[in-house]
Amino acid sequence: MLITKYTHACVRLEHEGRVLVVDPGIWSEPDALTGADAVLVTHEHADHVDVLRLRALGVPVHAPAGADIPGLAVQRAAAGAEFTAAGFAVRAVGGRHATVHGGQPDCANLGYVVDGAVYHPGDALHVPGEAVDTLLVPVHGSWLSTTQAIDFVNAVGPRRAFAVHDAQINERGLSSVNGWLGRETDTDYRYLRPGDAL
What we know:
It is built from three helices and 13 strands, in the order ββββαβββββββαβαβ. By secondary structure, it is α/β, with parallel strands linked by helices. The protein has a seven-stranded mixed β-sheet, with helices on one face. The chain has a six-stranded mixed β-sheet with strand order 1-2-3-4-5-6, with no helix packed on it.
């Protein structure tokens, strides 16, 4: 499976000519969606879902059952659901967005385990309850500390981890976070810049 990182939380998964895109938000590059067969949206926030682009795309878009995404037709899923998207096997896990302060924001958030190998948690730190090869770990957010990100990687225990949710952090901060995750996690942690693939 080829994994390509785009700005912020967006990743593109390709295998045998099939293309699945996760969280193409308003900050991600439009070409992330070129040739996409299906899209997974973890939650309703604009940094994870660009409604105008997705409405014009005309492919199945899967989103949490409780997500409020006006103007976009989506196929609803709940935690525990298993379905196929672009020929990939997907299991939805989690349920709620992480809180920032005083219980806010509180919205539906699903993480997705794709082909039993790649896990994108969206804006939550839900441990999926199964082994995954590749974890897409959020590294920055108003709802997240570096300690939480490190503990999350170690709790999931993937073979490798790559950063997502990083568009609001400057280069100095990113260097620090990457250093901590590289030293303190029991995995092959690497930072992919937008457009990098492996």
